[in-house]
Amino acid sequence: MEMMQGGLRSYAATVLFLAVAAGVWAQAPAVKSKDAAPVAAAKGMEVLEGAWVRPDGGYLILIKKVAADGTLDASYFNPKPLPFAKAQATRDGASMRVAFELQAGGYAGSTYQLVYDAAGDRLYGTFYQAVAKQTYDVYFTRK
Hints:
Layout: H1 2-27, H2 39-43, E1 50-54, E2 59-66, E3 72-77, E4 81-92, E5 95-102, E6 110-117, E7 122-129, E8 134-142
Antiparallel strand pairs: 1-2, 1-8, 2-3, 3-4, 4-5, 5-6, 6-7, 7-8
């Protein structure tokens, strides 16, 4: 019986130690390296995948996949689908940039130059309308 009580005390002490250690660990502040990137950048560029709508006209960019080299499998809808001639994502420090070029449907040479805003989960930047030779400030929100 005495041996059983000793074993129970040892087991209880171990459980108590693990519970206290887990509580201390859970309360400890996260350690960040000096090179820590924002959460979205840490996730990788797949955060760009999804449907993005431009509120000022209903234009839609659908990013289906981001390849390891940053090439985007993406389409543009205005409202009908138009293929991108080029669609590329790049990193600039901790930020992510996307560039799209259209060559179809009256948009020959038109481009989007956008930056991903992790805090607002949106893409913002400029749209160059090549036919009109005008640049517009634009943004897209996740649909």
